[in-house]
Write a structure and sequence with these properties.
CATH topology of the largest domain in chain A: ABC transporter involved in vitamin B12 uptake, BtuC
Shape of chain A: globular
Distance between the termini of chain B: 46 Å
Structural class of chain A: mainly alpha
Pfam families (chain B): BPD_transp_2
Largest sheet of chain A: 2 strands, antiparallel
Number of domains of chain A: 2
Oligomer: heterodimer
Order of helices and strands of chain B: HHHHEHEHHHHHHH
Organism (chain B): Bifidobacterium boum
Radius of gyration of chain B: 19 Å
Strand content of chain B: under 5%
Number of strands of chain A: 2
Largest interface: A-B, 50 and 47 residues
Radius of gyration of chain A: 22 Å
Subcellular location (chain B): Cell membrane
Largest sheet of chain B: 2 strands, antiparallel
Keywords (chain B): Cell membrane, Membrane, Transmembrane, Transmembrane helix
Structural class of chain B: mainly alpha
Helix content of chain B: over 70%
GO molecular function (chain B): transmembrane transporter activity
Number of helices of chain B: 12
Chain lengths: 351, 298
């Protein structure tokens, strides 16, 4: 008798928990999508247009998966660039700038190689230079934090705009392709430096997944990862325990920036083939939101980045089929993220 | 040329000054609103559309203020009442505003509108040098002067200001003394959004006379930095805003003079100066409202 009562109580609790963890998020995301549809309709789109966009963007798009994987390369890298510093208590909102600097450095090195036919070694050098540049860009903000107490949230945010201006300067003046019909873009990168696909899988995507595994191992299985987590969760205890807080802050931002820089270079070699403005517009911020929603879990971060990439790819035909401006996908991502952040606030604060 | 740069700096600085004071009030109430940029964008586009269609600039500014407040209301509802993370919500609201204004503003790109009329203040404007710099502007610049005094008065001389500052330091104390601290925060964020909207409106219909997607180009984030390195003080926030106005106006004046520096390198100047100022100020800064301590963390 008593046993039964207890189990009914538990059942009730379980029911409320299911309602809280499944139904409420579902409803919130539906509301968010509803808001987007209402916005699209207010802009003079028809429901048929929206459906056509969805149909041609996802269902009738044979390359949907490949495109999503390609798009997700810079997003995953930039999300990792948020998660690694976050483990040691730093907020890196500079993924955007680190992606750009990585792409700039990678392009610079790749273009200067020309058609030298350096192949795989050339690719490695290009990727390393991208990672190095992105790492240096992130490291700078870590030093500003430890040496001058400049809040890294603000400094990484400002560094994004400086990085974008550096790229625009290069593209409008010294690096401008003379054969680019006046467009601000760099010379195309030689074909043997481009990263292609193998059996329909973009190689850049495979590289990124391998890197994500390595980062996971580093954070969860290594001494450095453990120490970085201690520094992040309790700096005082770490300090008393003889760990140099600033050293871990430096190395975490260096690694984070390097991951984003690598993503920028991979994106140029794997997807774009040349540097142009708007290459990674707002990808760094989308990745930040994906990483934020993921807490500091690497696999969730990777997953949400892929989802965001799928949304970006899937909403591509919105412009053509539904007559909406290309930026409409930001509205879609924005309302969805807002819904998720509001409902997941407790896990968000705990992490 | 110095006069031109300084006078231009006061005018451009007003674009930053109004949002800065909005953000100052918001942060004094213990909330960091990163979507200032979003409010400015919304204000800029709405003001442009309304001013263009009605031909009435006052309506334009009112509509811009309302649009800025609307973005802030979304942010405040999520942050104050649902206790969502401020950093993420701020970025999302900016993101949303960027998307929405780009979509709606698409058909307004490249349309022009004439800028605000200059009103010389009788007497003061004929003071040599200073008259030129401070008293030969449009009405919004003078509104900016009033806003400085009004914010200082509000924050330090009124009971409302005391409650706002108290909310930023210790919410619980304000609650115990019989005020609803969450309502105070909500109102402070809305006030910030309103001023950001006016700042954005001044950029589009007051200063440049057109609309372009993403035209605020990070000014909203500079605003957050200005408030931080001014140490949450009224005087330094005002000074910082005008100094940044001057660095932006110096960049454009130098370019107009034909000094051959690349436009994009000049564009990055305000961000670099902001970073340097942040570094210089952060070493001595300990006046941060207590409630802001982890407002920009994940």
């Amino acid at each position: 008798m008593k046993q039964g009562q207890v189990s009914t109580l538990n059942d009730k609790k379980r029911h409320t928990r299911i309602v809280a963890s499944v139904v409420i998020p579902l409803i919130s995301i539906c509301i968010a999508l509803g808001c987007f549809v209402a916005f699209a309709l207010a802009q003079g789109t028809s429901l048929e247009g929206l459906y056509a966009a969805l149909y041609y963007g996802v269902l009738a798009n044979p390359n949907f998966l490949t495109q999503t994987m390609t798009r997700s390369v810079p997003l995953i890298c930039a999300a990792l660039a948020v998660i690694v510093p976050a483990r040691s208590g730093l907020v890196n909102v500079g993924g955007e700038g680190q992606l750009i600097i990585g792409a700039v450095a990678g392009t610079g090195v790749a273009v200067s190689m020309g058609d030298a036919g350096v192949g795989i070694i050339g690719i490695i050098i290009v990727l390393l230079s991208g990672a190095l540049a992105g790492g240096a860009w992130g490291y700078l903000c870590a030093v500003l934090k430890t040496a001058f107490h400049a809040p890294e949230t603000v400094s990484t945010l400002l560094a994004n705009f400086i990085a974008a201006d550096i790229m625009l300067y290069l593209l409008y003046s010294p690096w401008k392709d003379p054969d680019g019909s006046g467009q601000p873009q760099s010379k195309p990168i030689a074909a043997d430096l481009r990263i292609t696909t193998v059996a329909g899988l973009p190689i850049a995507f495979i590289i990124v997944i391998v890197i994500a595994m390595a980062v996971w191992a580093l954070l969860n299985k290594s001494r450095w990862g453990f120490a970085a987590r201690v520094v992040g969760s309790n700096p005082v205890a770490a300090f008393r325990g003889g760990l140099s807080v600033s050293r871990y802050a430096h190395s975490a931002m260096l690694l984070g920036g390097a991951l984003a820089g690598l993503g920028g270079a991979l994106n140029v070699l794997g997807a774009e083939g040349q540097l142009r403005p708007g290459l990674t517009t707002t990808f760094g911020f989308i990745a930040f939101l994906a990483a934020f929603i993921a807490g500091t879990s690497i696999w969730k971060g990777v997953m949400y980045s892929i989802v965001a990439a799928a949304v970006l790819v899937g909403s591509n035909p919105l412009q053509l089929r539904a007559g909406l401006d290309g930026n409409a996908s930001y509205v879609l991502l924005g309302v969805t993220c807002l819904a998720i952040v509001v409902i997941s606030r407790k896990t968000g604060r705990a992490s | 040329m110095i006069e031109i740069i300084l006078a231009g700096g006061i005018a451009v600085g007003t674009v930053l000054l109004l949002p800065s004071f909005g953000e100052l009030v918001t942060e004094r109430a213990g909330i960091t609103n990163l979507s200032v940029e979003g409010s400015m964008l919304a204000g800029a586009l709405t003001a442009f559309i309304v001013a263009k269609t009605t031909g009435n600039y006052a309506f334009g500014f009112l509509a811009g203020a309302f649009a800025g407040m609307l973005v802030a209301a979304v942010f405040a509802s999520a942050v104050v009442f649902a206790r969502a993370n401020q950093l993420a919500t701020g970025l999302i609201c900016w993101f949303l505003s960027l998307g929405i204004t780009s979509v709606i503003g698409n058909s307004y790109n490249g349309q022009a509108i004439h800028q605000l009329r200059q009103i010389d203040i009788p007497g003061l404007s004929s003071i040599p040098f200073f008259g030129n710099i401070f008293f030969q502007h449009d009405v919004v610049v003078y509104f900016g002067y009033v806003a400085i005094a009004a914010t200082a008065w509000l924050l330090y001389k009124t009971k409302t200001g005391l409650i706002i500052r108290g909310t930023g330091e210790r919410r619980a104390v304000v609650d115990v003394s019989g005020h609803r601290s969450s309502l105070v925060q909500f109102a402070a964020v809305l006030a910030g959004g309103l001023l950001s909207g006016v700042g954005g409106a001044y950029l589009s219909i007051g200063q440049v006379g057109n609309w372009a997607s993403d035209m605020t180009n990070g000014y909203g984030f500079i605003v957050v930095a200005i408030v931080a390195f001014s140490g949450w003080r009224v005087s330094l926030t005002a000074l910082g805003s005008y100094l940044f106005g001057m660095s932006i106006s110096a960049a454009s004046v130098l370019q107009a003079q034909g000094i051959a520096v690349n436009q994009y390198l000049l564009d990055s100047l305000p961000y670099i100066i902001t970073l340097v100022a942040l570094i210089l100020a952060s070493r001595t800064n300990s006046r941060q409202p207590e409630g802001l301590a982890d407002s920009l963390s994940m």
